[in-house]
Design goal:
Distance between the termini: 8 Å
Helix content: over 70%
Structural class: mainly alpha
Shape: elongated
Number of domains: 1
Amino acid sequence: MEYEEVQILTQLVSAMDEAVKKMEDYYDKRDLANFENAKKSILSFQKQIAQLLARAR
């Protein structure tokens, strides 16, 4: 895995962690629309991370 890919991976993980925190907050507030948006973001981050890791093999 190249340095740039590691940097991107680090950014994705950090962004996903932030989205999880927001999703929990939206859940507590019963804000369904923002909860769903955060969930979609997390799934997108997971997909991008999986693609990066698959290319690294």
